[in-house]
Amino acid sequence: MPPVVRFAPSPTGYIHIGNIRTALLNWCVGKRVGGQFILRYDDTDTARSRQEYADAIRQDLIWLGMVPDLELRQSDRLSLYDTTTARLRAAGRLYPCYETEEELDRRRALQKARGLPPVYDRAALKLTDMQKAALEAEGRRPHWRFLLNHRRVEWEDGVRGPAHIDTSSLSDPVLVRADGSYLYTLTSVIDDIDLGVTHIIRGEDHVTNTAVQIEIFEALGGRVPVFAHHNLLTTLSGEGLSKRTGALSIRSLREDGFEPMAVSSLALLTGTSEAVRPVASLEELAKLVDLSRISRAPARFDPAEIQVLNARLLHETPYAEVADRLVALGVGGGETFWQVVRSNIVKLAETKNWWDVVTGPVASDVEDTAFLSRAAAVLPPGPWDETTWSIWTDAVKAETGAKGKALFMPLRQALTGLDHGPELKGLLPLIGRERVLERLKREF
Ligand SMILES: Nc1ncnc2c1ncn2[C@@H]1O[C@H](COP(=O)(O)OP(=O)(O)OP(=O)(O)O)[C@@H](O)[C@H]1O
């Protein structure tokens, strides 16, 4: 059976490069063998979830090439959660609790003072019907906790190998809030069962959730999927990423002009056994994914590396893949121009600067105008090709006696207004004889 995978972000901000590590791993594991990739907005936290963020997540994934096969939002599925929760209540696995946050805080402080772990003591389980009625008469509304089985929950983690957590070390998790809203821990399992999710690949921030959720899967009679918890991306100094700060959001990287495959290559390959390098397509990237070879240590990455990857990716990109975008940027010169400039750019938009250098005008401040006039005098006749530059510079050398930097630098500066850039043997024919003459004679 082909895998069914999902990316399930909360639409509470713009997704960042760490979030897409999760999305990419799921996409790769699912799509490389013809599986289904689901995008699910986990928007049960209505106070923080926003439609504009959900829209942005979809756009970001599509920009990266991960088109979802199915898209759904948890806020549309409340009736499924209502009926499933009723089953858990009927089975005695959900029980009402009336403690306020302050009461719980106090209890935890007391446990800590006694050297005990701050685990919920299940006091609510001992409440009689009369006590519950009295609390409700006071105006209290219950929140609902899941009765854990207090056992050793084991699973074969796709990344971490054999894993286990003893749920007796955990508090019974709240699955339904006092206002009746559901927590992600529950709704996620209900959806994963309903959608037939076969693999749950997510960050290791979810490991504890997994033990709880395996118990919920079992309580609901669902098939427990394969779980895999990957390391989280952190900055070089070890700082985590959060949607709330907006740092390294996919949106900002796109606006900064980075290529989607540079972003994806960095997000996916950092902290794996593969060298971090630009990979040309998601399909190629998917072939490199081996969950069992993802490191357990945090995946530290240098945000500056994205520049390097972007440049390397563009250096290897064939003209056909960028032709339309070059036209949209107002860049001419076709494939020849692309071959000449692609190894001199970090971002595609920089091609426009070089095209402006080709078409002119350029301002230069070469003082030795006599040298330029003598160079102009020996300019070869057209047509020009890649050999013209060396024919010309040999002639200028013979004419003026200049060599090395003293020969090349004034010519480069006069022709481009700059002291660096693409090879002049490629640029020269693009600039053309007429403009070269103008620039040597300073007649722009
Ligand atoms: N720095 C990170 N590196 C890799 N994966 C991450 C990182 N941060 C979050 N994830 C993963 O992204 C997926 C979506 O997570 P979620 O929507 O909860 O976002 P978040 O960034 O963890 O949370 P928050 O909105 O609280 O900042 C989860 O599977 C989570 O494990």
UniProtKB/TrEMBL annotation:
Residues 377-442 form the Aminoacyl-tRNA synthetase class I anticodon-binding domain. Gene3D superfamilies: 1.10.10.350, HUPs (3.40.50.620). Residues 4-307 form the Glutamyl/glutaminyl-tRNA synthetase class Ib catalytic domain. The keyword Transcription regulation does not apply. It is found in: Cytoplasm. A motif ('KMSKS' region) lies at residues 240-244. It comes from the Bacteria. Its EC number is 6.1.1.17. The keyword Lipoprotein does not apply. One of its GO terms (molecular function) is ligase activity. InterPro entries: aa-tRNA-synth_I_cd-bd (IPR045462), aa-tRNA-synth_I_codon-bd_sub2 (IPR020751), aa-tRNA-synth_I_CS (IPR001412), aa_tRNA-synth_I_cd-bd_sf (IPR008925), Glu-tRNA-ligase_bac/mito (IPR004527), Glu/Gln-tRNA-synth (IPR000924), Glu/Gln-tRNA-synth_Ib_cat-dom (IPR020058), GluQ/Sye (IPR049940). It catalyses: tRNA(Glu) + L-glutamate + ATP = L-glutamyl-tRNA(Glu) + AMP + diphosphate. NCBIfam families: gltX_bact. Catalyzes the attachment of glutamate to tRNA(Glu) in a two-step reaction: glutamate is first activated by ATP to form Glu-AMP and then transferred to the acceptor end of tRNA(Glu). Monomer. Belongs to the class-I aminoacyl-tRNA synthetase family. Glutamate--tRNA ligase type 1 subfamily. HAMAP family: Glu_tRNA_synth_type1 (MF_00022). This is Glutamate--tRNA ligase.
